[in-house]
Write a structure and sequence with these properties.
Conserved Hypothetical Protein Ylqf, Chain: A, domain 2, 303 residues, binds guanosine-5',3'-tetraphosphate, 8 strands, single chain, 2 domains, Rossmann fold
Length: 303
């Protein structure tokens, strides 16, 4: 199965972001807490290399909290200020404000030394599609949303959301696309539902996902569907067959409807009905993850 996504207009989005980044002090980057590396576009590291960095592990309510804590430490080691957030409920937003203040502490002190007082911090949200940027902006800005008009020296048409007296947010997020060099990255992004499902084969996706869940979270599928997870006689797809039978996903004539069963499993996973599951964890030998992002970063520079 080939994972393909996002056409050429993304080059334009990248150029736009290059322009926007010049206007801001801090880049607030959202990733999906279930795949904090695969949902991160390493281009941002190149585009924002001179900026303060805040990383939001968004949708933390869907991920395994123990693994999220590992990722938080992993990114903090790499000089990010990190917050775990549920943008839907608003939990973790206070920590985001603290991260922004911390990330900009040097800038605020530099301003103060120069006699510039109360110049607001300017922030920009970036992330791949569906990671929760709009939801985050709405809940972070909350009722305080007040758009400031164009300002001299700022590119025409830019709108800033005044969050409070200290922070202004560029109202259009920077959208980048995920990198699909590694097959695993494509798989994880498809599992969380961020690739148009129409082009994918549900049975393959569900089988791969269930194999992962069995290896990392044994017992969860059994608890959810009441079926044996692995049996010595199993042929490929046997588990999906068992789930289809158990859930009455049958075609006329009694044959199992594995496509329906696969979609049921994928929906249950995306609705957090199987459990809070993280799809990747920092490698115990950290060089593995680091070399992956460095490799991708190097390819980007060659673009
Ligand atoms: P984007 O701007 O980055 O493309 O993402 P957007 O905010 O549109 O969010 C994509 C989906 O993710 C939305 O669900 C949104 O509600 C959900 N979401 C965002 N942040 C969180 C979070 O922290 N936790 C959880 N559980 N969900 C989150 P949707 O089903 O596509 O839309 P809706 O029915 O919620 O409106």
């Amino acid at each position: 199965m080939q994972y393909q996504w996002y056409p050429g207009h993304m080059a334009k989005a990248k150029r736009q972001m290059q322009e926007d980044i010049k206007l801001i002090d801090v880049v607030v980057e959202l990733v999906d807490a279930r795949i904090p590396l695969s949902s991160k576009n390493p281009d941002v590291d190149v585009l924002a290399k001179d900026k303060s960095r805040v990383l939001i592990l968004n949708k933390a309510d869907m991920a395994d909290p123990a693994v999220t804590a590992l990722w938080k430490a992993w990114y903090e080691k790499r000089k990010f200020f990190v917050a775990e957030v549920n943008s839907r409920s608003g939990s973790g937003l206070k920590a985001v404000q603290d991260c922004i203040n911390e990330a900009c502490r040097e800038k605020i002190e530099r301003d103060r030394r120069r006699g510039i007082l109360n110049r607001p911090i300017r922030a920009m949200i970036v992330g791949i599609p569906n990671v929760g940027k709009s939801t985050f902006i709405n809940s972070f800005a909350g009722k305080a949303i007040a758009k400031t008009g164009n300002k001299p020296g700022v590119t025409k048409g830019k709108q800033w959301i005044k969050l409070n007296k200290n922070v202004e947010l560029l109202d259009t997020p920077g959208i980048l696309w995920p990198k699909f060099e590694a097959v695993e990255v494509g798989k994880r992004i498809s599992w969380i539902g961020s690739i148009n499902d129409d082009i994918l084969v549900p049975e393959e996706m569900a089988n791969d996902l269930m194999a992962y869940i069995i290896s990392e979270y044994p017992g969860l599928l059994n608890g959810k569907y009441g079926v044996e997870e692995v049996s010595p006689e199993d042929k490929p797809g046997a588990l999906l067959d068992r789930i289809a039978v158990k859930r009455g996903c049958l075609k006329k004539g009694g044959e199992t409807d594995t496509e329906r069963a696969a979609n049921l499993v994928l929906d249950d996973f995306r609705g957090v009905k199987i459990g809070r599951i993280s799809l990747e964890r920092p490698a115990s030998d950290e060089t593995d993850n680091a070399s992956q992002s460095e490799k991708i970063g190097a390819e980007n520079k060659a673009d």
